[in-house]
Amino acid sequence: MKTRKLGATGPEIGCIGYGAMSFSDMYGPTNEAESHAILNRCRDLGVTHLDTANVYGMGKSESAIGTYLSANPGARDEFVIATKATITKDADGNRCFDNSAEHLEAELDKSLQRLGVDCVDLFYAHRRDPRFTPEETAENLGRMVKKGKTRAIGLSEVAPSTLRRAMKAFPIAAVQSEYSLSTRFPELGLVQACADLGVAMVAFSPVGRSLLTDNPIPKDRIKDLSFLSGNPRFTEPNLTENLRLTDAFRRLATEMGTSAAALANAWLLSRGDHVIPIPGTRSVDHLDECMAGADLMLSEADLARIEAVLPVGWAHGDRYSEAQWKGPERYC
After folding, report:
1. pLDDT tens digits, residue range 175-209?
2. What is the pLDDT of residues 27-60, one digit of tens each?
3. How far is it, in rounded angstroms, from Cα 182 to Cα 188?
4. CA separation (Å) from 123 to 60, 110, 174, 271, 311?
């Protein structure tokens, strides 16, 4: 697999990584054996970047990676592992965020234990805590680098202005944001800011939570998935319209001799040498489809055909509900 740099001074990683939220039950039940099969296939394909978080299955995702590394001596050296913290609950059980140095270190220590490693390669603030300035958050994360618990730090779902301020306090290796043919707001400043600063732009949900694949999640399953059942793009009448519109994208992928998932990831790779998609899946076959995007070379004519089928703003419904919008920074 071709490689890209994880930040200005970071390691070379496979140009498409793996989003390990799928090792939790976010998009349906899974188990350790299925997760380990995915990691085996990642190694076969040259997928070296694994992205997880402490809240993915409340430790389930990290633990699945940890047991795999324990069972496969030497595998740790093949992977560049990122995890995240800051999403927590207050005394009343309400979702909140904590960017304090004490919370970040305590949560990272738990993540290291679950992963079975002494140090991760990248540690993100999963959400910005408004009680802390961007500079303070970067400094608090940077303490983990100085203590040898992570090699680099990142920010997730932040505005370009937050990135620029944080960068002045401590080097930021990566910013993670939802970015795909169905969610293009990062092109209004964040993609550009990352390029200007030498920061990797890590794109999660690159296949639009299944809308940009050959097999979108069936309507009858969505009601059982807590996140999607309340998401505007997956509730009616928006869902029917989004499926209708993406049918044309699926046909285009077939005409181009590839899968919709491969084409969606290839499109993201065309956005800049610093853009790194991290699709997630519970299926080895779907993993193969996603990673095939690394080998697609899209011409200007190809990109124009994609744009004609799915122009900016085609999706019906916001990417988050009002409740789901708590935490991500809106900047445009």
Report:
1. 999 999 999 999 999 999 999 999 999 999 999 99
2. 878 899 999 999 999 999 999 999 999 999 899 9
3. 14
4. 18, 13, 9, 24, 34
Query: In whole angstroms, what is the distance from residue 271 CA to residue 275 CA?
Result: 7
Give me the phi and psi of 76, to 5 degrees please: -60, -35
> What CA–CA distance (Å, rounded) separates 211 from 241?
11
Tokens coding 80: 């560049």
Strand bridging mode 49-51 / 80-85: parallel
- The candidate with the shortest Cα–Cα distance to 272, out of 186, 210, 330, is 186
Residue-level pLDDT at 27? 80
Catalytic residues: 56
Query: In degrees, to the nearest 5, what angle opens at C-alpha 95 toward C-alphas 323 and 217?
Result: 50
Cβ atoms of residues 34 and 288 within 8 Å? no
48 contacts 278 by C-beta, under 8 angstroms: no
Q: Which residues of the chain have pLDDT under 70?
A: none
Mean pLDDT of all residues in the chain? 96
Ranges of each domain in the chain: 3-213+259-298
Tokens of 137: 């958050």
3-state class percentages of the chain: helix first, strand second, coil last, to nearest 5:
45, 15, 40
Query: What is the structure's pLDDT at 26?
Result: 76
Cα 252 from chain centroid (whole Å): 25
Q: Which homologous superfamily does the CATH classification assign to the domain defined by 3-213+259-298?
A: NADP-dependent oxidoreductase domain (3.20.20.100)
Distance CA 155, CA 90 (A): 22
Rounded to 5 degrees, φ, ψ at 121 are -90, -25
Sequence length of the chain is: 332
